Amino acid sequence: MAQALLRWHDAHQFCSRSGQPTKKNMAGSKRVCPSSKIIYYPQMAPVVITLVSDGTRCLLARQSSFPKGMYSALAGFCDIGESLEEAVRREVAEEVGLEVERLQYSASQHWPFPNSSLMIACHATVQPGQTEIQVNLKELEAAGWFSHDEVATALRKNNPYTQQQYGTFWLPPKLAIAHQLIKEWVEKPPCSTLPA
Ligand SMILES: NC(=O)c1ccc[n+]([C@@H]2O[C@H](COP(=O)([O-])OP(=O)(O)OC[C@H]3O[C@@H](n4cnc5c(N)ncnc54)[C@H](O)[C@@H]3O)[C@@H](O)[C@H]2O)c1
Predict the structure, then answer these.
(1) Dihedral of the alpha carbons of 152, 153, 157, 162, in degrees to the nearest 10
(2) What is the count of structural domains for the chain?
(3) Membrane-crossing residues (predicted)?
(4) Residues 27 and 56 reside in one and the same domain
(5) Are 193 and 185 in contact (CB under 8 A)?
(6) What is the ipTM score, two decimals?
(7) Which residues constitute the domain of residue 16?
């Protein structure tokens, strides 16, 4: 959190209107341009992260930049003007070609890498019978459905060091909200849902 704030100050040294240097306030909570009087506040980008389920399986995906063997839930930045529900539906459709039927909010997390994001985690379901995925290879390297047993076993054994070595499937570490979302699904598949 402190590092994220320091990075934000470092990247906002100049006013985008006047081009003049901005000044940090005593608390470090904002920067002001003495010339244009514009006040700059630290910002976070909202990101939706969604664990899609068809009732019995969950959908996990990986990007080529992920460590070898690691699969996670689908994530993507919210666009300007979008609601959380719209962002979830768009991201799931764009990345794997599925239509979200229902969604349920789970939790949120500040994520400082590489810049500040507010991760908004949701469970989503698709209609049984409409589960054929079309992986968008511009965004993902691979995606697939995983059974409850496969995911529960991966969670129990989750050790990035050995699993990367053997190239077996593993999940994000505990500090990531993706891990909590997957754990939640394994322990108690969501039952109360909101219309998407
Ligand atoms: N905590 C977790 O469990 C967890 C899990 C997955 C992803 N994440 C984080 O979520 C974020 C988004 O994930 P992703 O897989 O889409 O990331 P990504 O870094 O692959 O970004 C995808 C694309 O979004 C665009 N982009 C970058 N910054 C943006 C911004 N501020 N607003 C709008 N678009 C932007 C870029 O074109 C980028 O290529 C990343 O910061 C990632 O680290 C966190």
Answers:
(1) -120
(2) 2
(3) none
(4) no
(5) no
(6) 0.92
(7) 2-40
Within 10 angstroms of residue 155's Cβ, the number of other Cβ atoms is: 17
Residues 127-170 have pLDDT tens digits of 878 999 999 999 999 999 999 999 999 998 877 666 666 667 89
Q: Is the pLDDT of residue 59 over 80?
A: yes
Q: Does 72 sit in the ligand 1 pocket, CB within 6 Å?
A: yes
**Total-model pTM:** 0.90
Ligand 1 centroid from CA 61, angstroms: 14
CA-closest residue to ligand 1 atom 22: 76
Ligand 1 in reach of 61 Cβ (< 6 A): no
Q: How far is the CA of 138 from the centre of ligand 1 (A)?
A: 14
Same domain, 30 and 67: no
